[in-house]
Amino acid sequence: MSKIRLLESPGHGPATRFDRLADLPPQFGATAAQPGDLILPSPVNAHDHGYGIRTLDFGAADDALEVWIPGLRLRPRTDPYLEALVAFGRLARTGVGATMHCHNSLNVDRLVDEASAVMRAAGDIGIRLGLSCPLLDHDAWAYDGGPQRLKPFLSAGDWQALEQTIPIYAPISTQLAAVEAVAAANASPMIDVQYGPIGPQWCSNALLEAIAEASERHDRRIHMHLLESPRQRLWLNRRFPEGVVNYLDRIGFLSPRLAVAHGVQLRPDELELLAERGVQLVSNPTANLRLRSGVAPIASAVERDGPAFAIGLDGTGLDDDQDLWREMRLLYLLHGGRSLTRQLTTKNIFDAAIRVGGHVINARSAEDYTIIDYQGLTADSLFDDIDEAEVLLTRMSARYARGLIVAGREVMREGDLTGIDFDAALSELLAQARADRPRLEKQRPLANALSQATRTYYATWPGIS
C-alpha cells in the first residue's frame, strides 16, 4: 500500500513514510493527505507585484525592461482588493502559501486604503504576506534626467500628453509616514509591512538615507529592486563613482533587514559585501530572461557562501502561470554548471524557497505545508527510493498540488480555495478591466510611442545595443 511521505527538510535527506494520516505528527491532523501523497513545507514567492490582470493581458508584451515599463501605463483601473484577491488566489491554488507583494500604487494619498484592501485579500485567501510599500522621488521614464531626456524622441503631441502625466512626488516625510500608517493599520500576525524603495535609480540620496535611518529606528524590513538591467548598472556607476552597493553600505542601508530583488548585474565584490551584511538576494530567473536583463550570479553567490538567496516570480513565471515550482526548476537548471559535480543542489534550491523566503517576509518560524500528489508524479517509476527532492525539481508543477495548510488553516484542497470562489472573483475582475478598455484604447498610442522613444534614447548610450 502507498504510504504518506513527510519531507520536512527537502534536499537534506529522504522523506519519512507513514502508513496512516493518524501516524503523522499532531500538526498534520487537519490535512487532507491521502496514501501516495507527499507533505513538505510550503515554498515562499519572495518577490512579486500581485498582478491579478497579468501584464500580457493588457498589452505589455515582453521587451527590454526599460522599454517594457511604459506598457504598465495600460494597466486597467480595477478594485485593488479584487486585483490582489485573484493574484494571491492563483498562488494559493498552486500550493504556495506566502508571498512578498511589492505594491504598485504611486499615489501616497491612496496607499493606506489600497494597502488595507491588499491585506484584507491576503486574509480572505489565508496566505502569509510581506507588503512592500512603494517609495520613490525620481521619475521612472529615464534614469539620466527623467522624462525631459525623452522629449527629442517624441512628437510634440505625444510630449504634451506625457508632460501632463508626470507625477509630483510627496515629501519624504509624508511617504515614510504613510508606510507607518499602513503598519499601524495592520492587525494580522500573518502580514509584515516593509519599506519598498522601488530601486536606487528611482530614489534620491536623501530618500535612501531616510529609509535606512527609519528601518533601523523601527526595526522594519526593506525590500528593493537592485541592479536588474545593464542600463541600471551603467547609470548607477555614473551616479555613484564609489559603487552603489558601497554607497548603500556607507549610509547604513545594508543589514539583515534588507532583501534585494534581481541583482543580475552584481559584481563579485558586491556579492561579498551583501553577504557580510546579512542581506538576502531574491532571484527572479524567468522575469530576468523575459525582460532581457540576463542571469543573476546565483552560482557565484553559493560558491562564495553568500548572500543567502530566495526565489520569486516577479508576476511572470515561465508560462505566465505563476508556477513557483517551475521557477525553482529553472533556477536549478540555469545554475547547475558544466562540471561533474552539480554547482547548485536540491538543498540550495529548497533552502532558498522555504527558509530564506520565510526570512524575506519576516516569517522564519512559519509552519505551512503543501500536499502533493506524489503518486501521480512517480506513476511510471520503477523504483520507490528516488530522492524526493530530485523528483520535485524534475517534474513538479502546480497541477500536482493537492492541498495547502497555512498556520493550521486549510487554504486549498484539490485546487479549490476554501475561503473564496476564485472563478467568480476572476470573472468580476475581468469585467472591471474590460469596462476600462475604451480609456486604454486611447492610451495605447502614447504608451507605444513612449516605449519606442525609450528604446531610441537608451540606444544613444555608449555600450548599449
Automatic annotation (TrEMBL):
The keyword Hydrolase is annotated on this UniProt entry: yes
Limits of the Amidohydrolase-related domain: 39-336
The keyword Hydrolase appears for this protein: yes
Domain of life: Bacteria
Alphabetical list of InterPro entries matching this protein: Amidohydro-rel, Metal_Hydrolase, MTA/SAH_deaminase
Sorted UniProt keywords: Hydrolase
Molecular function in Gene Ontology: hydrolase activity
Region annotation Disordered: where it falls in the sequence: 1-20
Family designation: Belongs to the metallo-dependent hydrolases superfamily. ATZ/TRZ family.
Alphabetized PANTHER family for the sequence: AMIDOHYDROLASE-RELATED DOMAIN-CONTAINING PROTEIN (PTHR43794:SF11), AMINOHYDROLASE SSNA-RELATED (PTHR43794)
Name of the protein in its database record: Cytosine/adenosine deaminase
Organism of this sequence: Rhizobium hainanense
